[in-house]
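Pilot study result, target chain (201 residues):
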Amino acid sequence: MKVARAGDRYVITPDAAREQVPLKIGGCSVAGLTLSFFQEVDRTSRYMKTAQSFFTVISNSEREPLIRLEYDASHQRAVSHWQIHAERGAFTELLTRANLMSRVQRPYDISKLHFPTGGERFRPALEDFLEFLLRECGFDAVSGWKSAIRNSREAWRRLQFRTAVRELPREAADILRREGWTVNEPSTGSPKTWRKPYRRQ
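Predicted structure:
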């Protein structure tokens, strides 16, 4: 992976020699996986956070995206979402009816829909995306991939959990007290609650 600075952010992508990670079936390269993470300092100025991440599978035959899993904390709608580059007549018919009432735009382009996936805090991880590609799409995998993905996913979810505890300290303390723990408020006063990530789609 390559890390580069872009203004006040750090961008993490595959190495410069290879923009796409090749995806193979039976040893034959049929698609490419592009990955990018944009990291910045969080609101407390104490931790790094992911501001954006983009995972895209691109067909080798058409040079077009097939699916995208995107996260953008500044997005006005679903901050974490799937975008699927496929068409289905029944879905297009439904969207066309909504378009006639000015509720949606571009009804013939399903790839423009943002399918929500858990918001800022509970969104899928890269590990979920990789397991989807291996299990559901049948791409080749190396030996030991299951344990590597499971261990990495657990580490990521534990990190997300720690962030949630920092953002919702009263809720965390309340649950711990119910479970028999002794929890005291800090001497500096009540910790501030940060609800924004839990209200957004």
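One observation from the pilot: The chain has five helices and eight strands. A full batch analysis is planned for the follow-on phase.
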